[in-house]
Specification:
By secondary structure, this protein is α/β, with parallel strands linked by helices. It has two domains: 3-184 and 352-371, 3-Layer(aba) Sandwich (Rossmann fold), CATH 3.40.50.2000; 187-349, 3-Layer(aba) Sandwich (Rossmann fold), CATH 3.40.50. It contains 15 helices and 13 strands. The chain has helices spanning 15-26, 44-47, 62-65, 73-78, 122-126, 132-152, 164-174, 214-224, 237-243, 256-265, 279-287, 299-302, 322-335, 341-349, 353-365; strands at residues 3-7, 31-34, 51-53, 87-92, 106-111, 158-161, 178-180, 201-205, 228-231, 248-250, 266-271, 291-294, 314-317. Strands 3-2-1-4-5-6-7 form a seven-stranded parallel beta sheet, with helices on both faces. Strands 10-9-8-11-12-13 form a six-stranded parallel beta sheet, with helices on both faces. Helix 8 (214-224) crosses helix 13 (322-335) and helix 11 (279-287) packs across helix 14 (341-349).
Length: 376
Amino acid sequence: MRVALVHDWLVGMRGGEKCLDLMCELLPEAEIFTLVHAPGSVSKRIESRRIHTSVLQQLPFAAKSYPYYLPIMPWAIEQLDLRGFDAVVSVSHCVAKGVVPAPESWHGCYCLTPMRYIWDAYGEYFDARGSRSRRVAGQLVAPLLRMWDVASAARVDEFAAISQHVKSRIRRYYHRDSSVIHPPVDDELFSVPLASGPGSYFLSVGAAAPNKRLELAIEAFGQLGLPLVVAGAGPGSLRLRRTAPANVSFFGWSSDEELISLYHGARALVFPGYDDFGLTPLEAAAVGRPTIAFAGGGALETVIPTDGARVGTGILFAEQTAAGLIEGVREFLRVESCYEPARLREHAATFARRECRASLLQFLRRGISGSAIVPC
């Protein structure tokens, strides 16, 4: 049985690519299809597969400038030739789920999120804070992309969502039901020594994308005067670096070993964005560090709030503003000594790779014969 794995683009190893890596483990003979691939940018397991790219790969500066090709991504994903494949599994956060499978093949979509740029995060990507040309482009392109996004959902036989939050958005936009399979926390995080003693800085991890709201963290810590380390990069990182105060430092993308070291040295993870799941709070907990997170999106499923009745795994602040985050930090400082690294790791272990692997196996077996999937 021939199986195709479809991912939006392969230009870095983030949460979505970690989900694809697990799919590669479960489907050892599957070939990968994607819009754009930057060789060497993802895991060895993914890189070892036969990777088919779209026509976008031939366009100028595709590996770095791919976001600018968003208007033609639906067309490009539909050009991928999946004839001869008995099953298709898309790991999608943009257009991958819109691939056109062969008529008789099964298509299961592990949905990281419906395309956030055109739905509930549209304002963060195209609102008045951007240039006039960006606003006009959004007004012209977004309605067409929304129509395509809804129509192409009919090509999916079964959806699985990464969180209850994403499940509700699949229902809202595609009018489809889905199961929930949480993404995995890397196993190696449970084998490293737990963090001990107080950290020396606060840490923010993730791409400098609009939904991550890193500007809130920078503004809040500029007022607090506490040290903040930002680990990650993205289209907005240069602007953030230019405006950041002296107590905020930037690390850029880091290796797994460097990231673990950053978690060890932190007092807490700062998570001000509205995320689809909230994997980094679990990574921090696996190492033994709590999180200060905005009380919205996937963080509601991965962070147990600390309140007067219990010590959870972090602080949830209600107002997604610098003032709201400042209050969250101050609340954290009042209860910082209550957090026990072993209990934080215990919480993260409920989202370990083995748990995700078992759920994905059940999902895949509903459309793919056992011969194409690794045995239990």
